[in-house]
Backbone:
């Protein structure tokens, strides 16, 4: 077998963990572990290839995803200054949603209504 093995690093209060990130299944398990770590410990950091994610509980002031406008219920995935929902974070990490388009969509609640 050839090819480079991709590894992701998860940091959370009380520990660190290295996990494989080669296949879609590996990434699914990885994001499930990050979700669990952030929910149970309050936050987690994920280093995946050239992406450094910060994942935290949303608390009372839950924001909206800067890509799709959905409400970030429970957890907020931050990549640089971008805040994403879990679905969009997974798409960005897999390369199926490109960065740089964020901010072009507004959350549904912020649309101005003509009076």
Residues:
């Amino acid at each position: 077998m050839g090819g480079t093995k991709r590894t992701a690093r998860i940091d959370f209060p009380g520990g660190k963990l290295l996990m494989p990130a080669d296949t879609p299944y590996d990434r699914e398990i990885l994001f499930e572990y990050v979700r669990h770590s952030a929910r149970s410990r309050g936050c987690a950091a994920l280093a995946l290839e050239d992406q450094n994610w910060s994942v935290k509980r949303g608390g009372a002031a839950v924001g909206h995803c800067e890509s799709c406008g959905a409400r970030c219920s429970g957890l907020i995935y931050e990549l640089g200054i971008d805040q994403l929902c879990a679905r969009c974070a997974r798409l960005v990490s897999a390369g199926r949603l490109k960065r740089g388009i964020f901010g072009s969509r507004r959350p549904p609640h912020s649309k101005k209504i003509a009076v």
Observations:
- The radius of gyration is 15 Å.
- Residues 73 and 105 are 18 Å apart (CA to CA).
